[in-house]
Amino acid sequence: MTNSQLKRVVVTGLGAITPIGNTLTDYWQGLMSGKSGIAEITHFDPSKHTCQIAGEVKGFDPHNYLDRKEAKRMDRFAQFGVAASLQALADSKLVINDLNAEQIGVIIGTGVGGIKVLEDQQEIYLNRGPSRCSPFMIPMMIGNMASGLTAIHTGAKGPNSCTVTACAAGSNAIGDAFRLVQRGYAKAMICGGTEAAVTPLSLAGFASARALSTRNEQPQQASRPFDKDRDGFVMGEGSGILLLEELDHALERGAKIYGEIVGYAMTCDAYHMTAPVPDGAGATRAIELALKDGGISPEKVSYINAHGTSTAANDVTETKAIKKALGDHAYRIAVSSTKSMTGHLLGGSGGIEAVATVMAIANDRIPPTVNLDNPDPECDLDYVPYESRPLDIDIALSNSFGFGGHNVTLAFKKYR
């Protein structure tokens, strides 16, 4: 398709279930106040684990969105995804009916899907035998169920898929949804990421890989992106969902518009299972290609919501990538990691971070990076330490990188 044939795509609805708030308003206020959602794990007894902290979602009641039978037949990751999707749809005031259902789709990414159900059913299998395993185990466990169940609960009959690209999954879902609307395959898409992997087995696996912080006595200070004293990431859970809509469709129904999505790129390091390529080449290309896709010159970028995991490898390589992609302008933009407050939602991170990026544009305010006490000398950009900052934002980027070498950059723009 020629550029003149591509549709403009805007954001008309947002939903968020996060460690710092279970509504869009509470999540945004939490970010603006520098609130940390990291605390000692309560889902299970973590005393045997080297890492005993996480960004758990607090006070979430699935029955606010689902009846009891439906909720019981869903893993927590799917409950989060459906809940945030229903929030975003309500926020957009888009009504799905028989006339438009086939033009509205869903793509929700996840890193590991229903791992809690898998762990629980394995325990039942070992202790009580195979006949006692739940007939709902498989549909509760598989990663596509957040997308499938969201369609069931909203009536969206258009394109439906699930991205499973580790920590880039939520951003890939948003980018793929953007392409479908941009090219006319859908009028609107519910998209984002969801995760509920704070479980004993997941925690043990990441800890064995020495990826997690062990700052158990200071949980709120444990996630510290770009700080030289960082010692690993902190797991989180939740969901972030965007309602993307073709511009003319949104204008015809008088929709509220938060911003416009204008660029998307994905690349692969093709280097290592878990480590990013040291020079940040793959991430650099993702940023450059997203800018090219959106017709954006580097000096137009005002803000980057960084992947910023609080790990030794990511923070330095992402900083290198930003500098290579944006040149000297990298030193004149604001960069922040909201993972410093929420922890790392794995496949859900791209969703809540895209929500944060769009809200930053809509409110002309940058979320901070908390816990940045002693910046790593190799991390020498403006990471907006501790306090949110007012800034007139025209273009903002959101970065997500995942195990396997997946790199994704999304580019958002103020709607004019």
What this model shows, in words?
By secondary structure, the protein is of the alpha/beta class. It folds into two domains: 3-252, Peroxisomal Thiolase, Chain A, domain 1 (3-Layer(aba) Sandwich); 264-413, 3-Layer(aba) Sandwich (Peroxisomal Thiolase, Chain A, domain 1), CATH 3.40.47.10. It is 33% helix and 18% strand. The protein has 13 helices and 14 strands. The strands form three sheets. It has a ten-stranded mixed beta sheet, with helices on both faces. Strand 9, helix 11 (312-326) and strand 10 form a beta-alpha-beta unit. It is globular. 59% of the residues are buried. The mean pLDDT is 97. Residues 6-414 form the Ketosynthase family 3 (KS3) domain.
Give a quick precis of the structure:
This protein is an alpha/beta fold and 416 residues long.
Question: Based on CA inertia axes, which overall geometry fits?
Answer: globular
Based on secondary structure, the structural category is: alpha/beta
**Please, how many helices?**
13
Helix content: 25-40%
For the sheet with most strands, the description reads: 10 strands, mixed
Find the CATH superfamily of the largest domain. Thiolase/Chalcone synthase
| CATH architecture classification name of the largest domain | 3-Layer(aba) Sandwich
The CATH class of the largest domain is Alpha Beta
Radius of gyration from the CA trace?
Answer: 20 Å
**Helix and strand element order:** EHEEHHEHHHEHEHEHEHEHEHHEEEE
Number of strands: 14
Count of folded domains: 2
According to CATH, what is the topology of the largest domain?
A: Peroxisomal Thiolase, Chain A, domain 1
